[in-house]
Amino acid sequence: MLVQATNRLQQASARSKSKHLFNRAKGVFPDGTTRATVEKDPFPIYAHRGEGAYLVDVDGNRLLDLNNNFTTLIHGHGFAPVSEAVADLLRSGTCFANPTEHEIALAELLTARIPAMERVRFVNSGTEAVMFAIKAARAFTGRPAIARIEGAYHGAYDWAEAGQGVSPGRDGWAPICVATPAYRGTPSSVADEVHLLRFNDVATLEARLSAGSKRIACVLIDPMPSRAGLLHPEPAFIEALAKMASKYGILIVADEVLNLRQGYAGASVRYGLKPDLITAGKIIGGGFPIGAIGGREEVMRVFGTEDAKPLLAQGGTFSANPVSMVAGRAAMEAMTPDAFDRLEAMGERLRAGLRARIARRDAPFSVTGAASFFRIHPKRLAPLEYRDAYLSTEEASLMRTMSRYFLEAGILLPYGAAACLSTPMVDSDIDLILGAFEEFLEAKIQSGKEHAQ
Ligand SMILES: Cc1ncc(COP(=O)(O)O)c(C=O)c1O
């Protein structure tokens, strides 16, 4: 088995066109790519086209896509209703300084479905949505600081980034980590205004929010933080958050840029979280750039009212551009409650299948996720917080090996982030994933035995 696996890995180096493109790209991009999130092992796989649940790379390999552009493509690639709606629109102009009916239609769809979204504004990315949600919370409360969960990813706004990369020191984890600016040269004052919380840790939440109560404008929370481990929120944590926020007049900002994918009404509803502001992105653009900030009407008034100047001005050359609006509406209209249920059932079958294979071999792995998301951890116990999910060097290398196994089985499995399903997937695609995982576990057990000899 190990020999067979090694041979298959060697074939991976025959991805010649991707390799060639990467060499060319190094002449124009500082590290050969133009997104830090592009996976290189040792070079990126360049996409040629998409076909439903599959991506075809420039070397002609057809790969089951579990990345879906970082969970954006809930209908996979080339979804006809989106392509047709956008093609119709393109001939009549792609952007105007004037508003269009398309933005109203998408806003009506979202506000009708998502209880926390009484009013909404559109921007062009999840990063921008989180940035404006934080600014809105500050403008509403008149306070400068935020609290956020350590290890969680919320895009590239300085305050949203501080604390996303915390790691253990020589003596292990500090009981409470202090936020540090994500990058060299960022003013240290950024970190002074960021309080770190631990997911599912009620004691730290209570201590931090009461200590910072006068300065904290909002708690920024992803209901199931994916990069921090795709963690399940504990009801006690959600309850404590609601209690503390109400006690100190702190707003709750639910970052659902990724997790709105969890259902017709999004993720907060599912976990009993009642946010004052909510951010969205990814799936609501149907594969085109988008972000949205929504929330309680009273809070959203900071963006202005018919008769008052805004406390916070939000514009943007491409905000609410008709292409994203039309594409997003076509994609979201097709996401009926039945479509979400079908994805959820497929996700359940997959997670249960992965767990059964782990249990059968008593392998030191676990699986987290919900709805159409899953993540495999090289940990015996499913993580409850970022620290549990944090990978040692050996574990990180094992996860790389696993992604390579999947690739050789014709599957693109994201490394260190949430994997997701898409509506064009069928049962045989789930079987393919389960088969690849089974083979990986077998090979791992086999190589363990060889090492022991
Ligand atoms: C929870 C969350 N917030 C914000 C962002 C940033 O979104 P974008 O990449 O569209 O800027 C992401 C992106 O993955 C995300 O997962």
Would you give an account of this structure?
42% of the residues lie in helices and 13% in strands. It has 453 residues and is α/β, with parallel strands linked by helices. It folds into two domains: 191 residues, Alpha-Beta Complex (Aspartate Aminotransferase, domain 1); 255 residues, Aspartate Aminotransferase, domain 2. The protein has a seven-stranded mixed β-sheet with strand order 4-10-9-8-7-5-6, with helices on both faces. Strands 1-2-3-13 form a four-stranded mixed β-sheet. A three-stranded antiparallel β-sheet has the order 11-12-14. Helix 1 crosses helix 16 and helix 9 packs parallel to helix 10. It is globular and about 75 Å long. The relative contact order is 0.16. The N terminus is likely disordered. The structure holds pyridoxal-5'-phosphate. The site of pyridoxal-5'-phosphate (PLP) has 14 residues, from helix 6. The site of pyridoxal-5'-phosphate has 14 residues, from helix 6.
Ends distance: 16 Å
**CATH class category label of the largest domain:** Alpha Beta
Largest sheet: 7 strands, mixed
- Average pLDDT confidence is 95
Question: CATH superfamily name of the largest domain?
Answer: Type I PLP-dependent aspartate aminotransferase-like (Major domain)
Instruction: Specify Rg, calculated over alpha carbons.
Output: 22 Å
Shape: globular
Strand arrangement, largest sheet? Answer: 4-10-9-8-7-5-6
The domain tally reads: 2
Low-confidence stretches: 1-10
Question: What is the third-level CATH name, the topology of the largest domain?
Answer: Aspartate Aminotransferase, domain 2
Strand content: 5-15%
Helix content: 40-55%
CATH architecture classification of the largest domain = 3-Layer(aba) Sandwich
Number of strands: 14
Helix tally equals: 17
Structural class: alpha/beta
The hetero molecules present are: pyridoxal-5'-phosphate
